[in-house]
Specification:
Helix content: 10-25%
Radius of gyration: 20 Å
Order of helices and strands: HEEEEHEEHEEEEHHEHH
Structural class: alpha+beta
Shape: globular
Number of domains: 1
Distance between the termini: 28 Å
Largest sheet: 9 strands, mixed
Bound molecules: zinc ion
């Protein structure tokens, strides 16, 4: 993908109601008592991506708040320092770092309960992973379809996981995960870490400081290349 401004990227994320291929990665979101039928793409429970991340609050152009995961730099991490200023906030601007697992999955059905495999990432605490996922893996075949159910809200939320025999009263169609990944042009590693579109952002210290100062990790960039990409031609506010 060609370079685009961070603002544009945010707009695009906001506009996007569901994963439709390309470089964006959705995380699995469930409401209280909602369930999802998924295929786990983990080959082995020990082969999972774990990052220590800050939950960082962002605001879209349209004013909507959302959080993203930013990789903690460890020693001298500016976000660790900033998190100390937000310890008493219910939804802090910057949280303390937490260990989070990122499990690549295919969600098998869309919101209308139609069979439509989509690539997503399941993000949970390491504690959940050990107590629930690894525990389930000791009893079930995790390469088969799974049902994930959320119940509760806030600190009383639990996510259960068990084998899916049927979905919405019908047999679950067979899925070739590799074909789905190919069709959607998904690179699992990149979907999780390393690009602005990954679930885990890898900001450097300068970007973190920039975020703390301005709310965005990127210095506003007005060079010609970007202008051309983010504004339709003929719509130049300066009129030339
Ligand atoms: Zn940190």
């Amino acid at each position: 993908m060609s370079r685009m401004s961070f603002e544009t990227a945010n707009e695009r994320i906001d506009q996007q109601s569901q994963y439709s291929g390309g470089n964006y990665t959705n995380t699995l979101m469930l409401k209280d008592k909602e369930n999802a039928f998924v295929l786990s793409l983990l080959k082995d429970v020990t082969d999972v991506d774990v990052y220590s991340v800050h939950k960082v609050k962002m605001t879209s152009k349209s004013g909507k708040e959302y959080t993203i995961d930013v990789d903690c730099l460890g020693k001298d991490c500016p976000l660790c320092k900033e998190a100390q200023n937000h310890l008493n906030e219910k939804f802090p601007q910057v949280s303390k770092p937490r260990d989070v697992v990122y499990v690549p999955i295919i969600r098998l059905y869309n919101k209308d309960k139609e069979f439509e495999p989509q690539y997503m990432v399941l993000t949970r605490s390491t504690k959940w992973y050990r107590n629930t996922y690894v525990e389930a893996a000791s009893r079930f075949d995790m390469s088969k379809p799974l049902e994930i159910m959320r119940s509760g809200n806030g600190v009383d939320t639990t996510w259960s996981i068990y084998p899916a025999i049927k979905a919405y009263g019908k047999d679950i169609p067979e899925v070739d995960p590799n074909k789905v990944l190919d069709d959607l042009e998904v690179d699992i590693d990149e979907s999780i870490y390393g690009t602005p579109f990954s679930v885990v952002k890898n900001w450097n210290a300068d970007q973190m400081n920039q975020y703390i100062e301005t709310g965005s990790p990127y210095v506003p960039n007005n060079d010609d290349t970007e202008e051309e990409e983010i504004k339709p031609r003929g719509n130049n506010k300066y009129g030339f």
